[in-house]
Amino acid sequence: MRALVRIASWLYAAAVYGFIFLPVVVLVLFSLQATSFPIPPFTGPSLRWYDAVLADTRLTSALVNSLLVAALSSAIAVTLGFLSAWGFARFVLPGSALLRGLITLPLTVSYLIIGMGLLVLFNWAGVPKSLLAAGIGHVVINLPLCFAIIYSQMGDHQINIERAARDLGAPEWKVLLLITVPVMAPAIFAGFFLSMTFSWDEFVISFLLTRFDTTLPVEIWNLLRSGLNPKTNAVGSLVFAVSIVLVVLFELMLLRRKPA
């Protein structure tokens, strides 16, 4: 009976992981297709379509745009998230529970709703569609995530270290920069890399708030409008690879945090 349970468990696990990763495996496999159609039989491996992606100036420009928007918006989001978390953790504020709920509220709202709201707001304010507008949108959706990660890691032992620094005569800005930030560095970097992961492959807000200069997910959507081809698979594989790297970095930051 135990053997049957063990076999059933392994089969269930294989089915779950197969359901999750099989589309990705197919995507990567047919990005290496040598012919012009991503259909069986497989005629590879070949890097022909990766060369085509790197030779396409629109795709490479969109790739650079995605990296810039993801890096800058994540840096701003994690900075604002850290300062907000530090303020709520270290000071008694009236209605702090309500304010914390308002900060994390965008986590429960659809990106489509946030994007449409920002589009209406920017049209009213006269802000044109651009990478800047998309970056602001990414800050809006990633700031609550960074705040939640950093705030959850602020504990009493850090308060004692900060108090000791103040007792030794350190001004508040030095306590913040030389004590709090280094102690919270794993949580800060974890928030940054996870924010970059979400920003890197975000489509809806980028689609609504950009026009001429676009991000890579928007360019992929433009490619898909003309039908599937191995070039699309190659771009998707590159996006997936970058996302995996960012997630691994995020996990490494969490592992660094656990021993503390």
Task: Briefly characterize the structure.
It is a multi-pass membrane protein. By secondary structure, the chain is mostly helical. It has 12 helices and no strands.
Features:
globular; transmembrane helix; single chain; MetI-like_sf; mainly alpha; MetI-like fold; 260 residues
Tell me the number of helical segments per DSSP (H or I, 4 or more residues long). Answer: 12
Radius of gyration: 23 Å
Distance between the termini: 43 Å
Count of strand segments: 0
Low-confidence stretches: none
Q: Please indicate the count of domains.
A: 1
Strand % is under 5%
Helix and strand content put the structural class at mainly alpha
CATH-defined fold name: MetI-like fold
Membrane topology: Multi-pass membrane protein
GO cellular component, one term: plasma membrane
Keywords: Cell membrane, Membrane, Transmembrane, Transmembrane helix, Transport
Pfam families: BPD_transp_1
Description:
One of its GO terms (cellular component) is plasma membrane. It is a multi-pass membrane protein. This protein is mostly helical and 260 residues long. The chain has a single domain, classed as Orthogonal Bundle (MetI-like fold). Helix content is 77%, strand content 0%. The protein is built from twelve helices and no strands. Helix 2 crosses helix 12 and helix 3 packs across helix 11. The longest helix is centred in the N-terminal third of the chain and has 34 residues. 31% of the residues are buried. The mean pLDDT is 82.
